[in-house]
Amino acid sequence: MMSLEERLVLSGVLTAADCRTVLELGYGEGGCTRWLSHHCDSVVTVDLDASVNNAFALWNVVPMQMTTQRALEQLAKQEDRFDLAIVDAGHDADSVLSDVLGAAKIANVLLLHDIFYPPTRRGAMQAVSQLNCWHNFDVATGYFKDDVLWGGIGIICPNLAVDDEPLSSSTLGNDYIRRLFEVRKQRHLFKAPKWLVRFTQLLAKVWDDASDAR
Ligand SMILES: C[S@@+](CC[C@H](N)C(=O)[O-])C[C@H]1O[C@@H](n2cnc3c(N)ncnc32)[C@H](O)[C@@H]1O
Fold first, then answer.
1. Which residues pair with 85 in a beta bridge?
2. CB of residue 92 inside a 6 A radius of ligand 1
3. Can you identify the CATH homologous superfamily of domain 4-172?
4. Higher-confidence residue: 193 or 112?
């Protein structure tokens, strides 16, 4: 469920941070899981939905059919650690907040999918204000779908202090603000042109009538 740009970011992070062990919160249809299985040593994938058990077919993937909160508690109790966690389960602000806080305890790098979806971004912003660590929420830009902003990738590094440059942290980058303006503009356009649609329909009818008359 990722765009080409998002996949490239994921691939770049896996390589640059040499991620061998990955925790995936949100299996969905397993598209990302199959790919992770191919590129990493081991993957744990979590989803409420029973389809997560299809991942048993992948030799290096352990599926957990349960809530992400329960899984995060269980993994922390087992003292499991991951090079990377992909946060892509519940997209409401509360779920994102608790998934990020939980994943930050057991993973070195967090990738957040759909960070351009406003509730997801809100939850992530609340989380980094508590973690006070390096983050950038505009690594891959989101897009406009079904009248809402979706997609995009954000990164959080829980072990890197917020002031540890070279890259400065960013939660409300230019891309996000630009996209928000685009959404407003598109909503405005969707509302405005009813008269225009009607006008072109009338024109088409006049054209047809004229053709019939000839
Ligand atoms: C967007 S899909 C994941 C897509 C997948 N990461 C991919 O890229 O192919 C989100 C999934 O999260 C699961 N989910 C939502 N809330 C959850 C929760 N609280 N605990 C566990 N899974 C959850 C849903 O069942 C859904 O399958």
1. 23, 110
2. no
3. Vaccinia Virus protein VP39 (3.40.50.150)
4. 112
Which residue among 11, 47, 100 has the greatest number of ligand 1 atoms within 8 angstroms of its CB, and so is best to mutate? 47
Task: Give domain limits for the chain.
Answer: 4-172, 174-214
- Please report the atom of ligand 1 found closest to the CA of residue 2: 8
Q: Rounded distance, CA 124 to CA 152, Å?
A: 13
Write out pLDDT tens, residues 111-153: 999 999 999 999 999 999 999 888 889 888 888 887 788 999 9
Tell me how far the alpha carbon of residue 167 is from its chain's centroid.
Answer: 21
CA–CA distance, 105 with 81 (Å, rounded to integer)? 9
Residue 173 Cα to ligand 1 middle (Å): 26
> Under a CB-based contact definition with an 8 Å cutoff, are residues 88 and 28 in contact?
yes
With 0-12 / 13-18 / 19 or more C-beta atoms within 10 angstroms meaning exposed / middle / buried, residue 134 is buried
Q: pTM of the entire structure?
A: 0.84
Ligand 1 pocket check for 68: Cβ under 6 Å: yes
Residue nearest to atom 11 of ligand 1 (CA): 26
CB of 49 closer than 6 A to ligand 1? yes
Q: Which of 108, 114, 122, 123 is nearest to 145 (CA)?
A: 114
- Quick check: 183 and 146 in contact, CB under 8 A? no
Find the helix or strand (DSSP H, E) in which 136 lies: strand 133-145
